[in-house]
Amino acid sequence: MLFEEIEEPVFTGEELAKQAEHQRSIRLSIVMRLSYCTCKRVKSSQVAENRGFPTAVSAGSVLGTGNVAGLPLGGGLSPCLGPAFVLPDRHVEFGPAMPHKVSLTRLKLTDFRNYAALSLELDQRHVVLTGENGAGKTNLMEAISFLSPGRGLRRAAYADVARVGATDGFSVFAAVEGMDGPVEIGTGTAGAEEGQSRRLRLNGTPARTVDELTDHLRVLWLTPAMDGLFTGPSSDRRRFLDRLVLSLDPEHGRRASEFDRAMRSRNRLLSEFRPDPAWLTAIEREMAGLGVSMALARLEMLGLLTALVERSQGGSFPSAGLSLAGFLDDCHGLPAYDLEERYLAMLSDGRGRDAAAGRTLDGPHRSDLLIRHREKDMEAERCSTGEQKALLVGLVLAHARLVGDMTGHAPVLLLDEIAAHLDQGRRAALFDRVDELGGQAFMTGTDRAMFTALGERACYLTVANGRVSE
Ligand SMILES: Nc1ncnc2c1ncn2[C@@H]1O[C@H](COP(=O)(O)OP(=O)(O)O)[C@@H](O)[C@H]1O
Ligand SMILES: [Mg+2]
């Protein structure tokens, strides 16, 4: 009896092979990214190591202990949900090392929004853009956001981005001191089929996908449109969370879009009269694998961010408590393989219900990111507008720090209308925090005087009618 209670589950050879394969697929590409930067630049791995993060250089020991950032990686252990995702070495102090600076040295826009043609030479300092409403400040930020995968900070249709009256789409060109050395990036819809997709050239050579941008720089942003994040629909918070994950784990986007495609196939199939059960099962199995991987990647991200927030508490911005709800909530501690089986069963059992609803009611697409104001111990949506803004700023800065720590390269930060709602003291504190990140930040405002505390750390440009001057 006792023996039975402690008996380990016995797996068949096939199941074991499946688990091993699964663990390989879940070996989050965060680790791959780390390997990437550390293989290319030993110095950046030292940066990461100094900060207590595992790197490819220490990969032997990492894999040996079967643990990266609390995520078991082989060695017979399975990835599982739960508190294990919090960094185990949270007491490790940050080292003095700064992440490498990534900066734009040149930016050229053609037929981009209200810019017919713009050519800017920049040094490595931060850039402050001031000008009246409608001048083109956010447009310029949006152009820089196209140096990361996706549809930019407005999530606009490409057809809207091309300047009204332009005949051949838009283009953005940037010379960047990037994560892999200097690189020239060209992207846009010029010459492409209108509105479909944008092209990417790296040093003049066409890239396979825009995801290749993440090999060169990471771009993070905070815009006024994000002010309603805590009170708005959960889809906004999911998107926000997925962008956080993407900046560390570019594979996350592929998983999410493949999951989405599989889910749409399932919904379509369920709407048919007598759908083929074998086909449904095959699609659901695919959804289970992708869906659990997505959930794990999100949880790992939140674990890393939480550990970082805890280590750097007590600054001028409140810190956020982060958790996930809405998908596999009650499964803490279960191995990923079991999670997949559980989600598969949920999908299979929910066919009738989902067919009636016309959509899939369980899955990572129903997760919500729960955010709390830690110091006040209050849900973010119940905090005042000012507190919410401060919380959001704190969250984005913490994330930027995490990206710098994990990759060894500071992200490019776009902070639109950042100074507007902050008093003078908070503004100065913000500028110091931004500067300490070690990267290049672009900031906008209506009044240059708001930025005096930045002093020589930034160059100052005036924007008017789609033109930029010193
Ligand atoms: N596709 C486009 N073609 C031309 N002008 C555009 C296009 N899209 C937006 N605009 C113009 O850009 C201006 C808004 O610029 P924006 O960068 O948002 O201003 P702000 O400086 O206030 O941030 C508006 O005048 C708008 O009409
Ligand atoms: Mg604006």
From TrEMBL:
Main subcellular location: cytoplasm
Subcellular location: Cytoplasm
Top-rank taxon: Bacteria
Protein name: DNA replication and repair protein RecF
Native organism: Sinorhizobium fredii (strain NBRC 101917 / NGR234)
GO annotation (BP), single: double-strand break repair
Family of this protein: Belongs to the RecF family.
Pfam families referenced in this protein's UniProt entry, alphabetically: SMC_N
